Amino acid sequence: MNANTAKGQTTAAAGDAFVVWKADQNSDGSSRANGMWNIGGDDMYTWRTDGQLYEGFGTATRYSTGVPVQPVNRYHMYNVSAQAGNWINRIDGQTQYRSAANTVGWSNAPTLGRANYSPLGDIAEIIIYDRILTDIEREAVCFYLNRKYSLVLAITLTGRFRDCNLDGFTDEKDVGLAVDPYELDADHDGVPNFVELSNGTDPLNSDTDRDSVMDGIDAYPLDPARSTIPVADPNDHTGPTVTLTTPSEATLG
Asked: Are 70 and 133 members of one domain?
């Protein structure tokens, strides 16, 4: 099957590809396992008899990227990034192999599978970019695919840059603090995290001023000496006290 969406890749200076895929087996028992695609200088052999993953996406050569530790008969998110002087492939966000001496190369006739070698296993989705994504863009794609296909817990793949619950900490930091990175009210005080940050209260502490009154019902959540608004006395007709401080020569008329 022609990978028509990748045909524009032939003149790109770089590329990033994401594939949600699983293999039927570690090896097909032959000298060369079935190829998943050919989008670079050579195709990607999913698994050979030696158990290694061979990949040619975005390179003038083909890399032997080692034997994956992940069980290949389950769905995984495979990502490969290629540019001049840097080539990386990843499985479930974990680096499988890296080269710091890459020469970019693309196939003029990109395909899924290759010649007599049909894809081994199942492919759920492929996303290809004609550039290298930024770290936060990569996290966004990982997050999207991970949640869509329920691959693994999203936090195991992403969270170094993203702040899903808007508490001012990255998802990775939240997990380290035992905070749910997707909980919009992390301290359960009735005030959303982003509102607490705007108000100056602590989104991870339900009683910021430690006066035993939760921030959500504390009229003065930053003042431990008071928490309620005084009740107005309808019989108090005392006028206000006005003090002028600026300019220094000001007087009341």
From this structure: yes
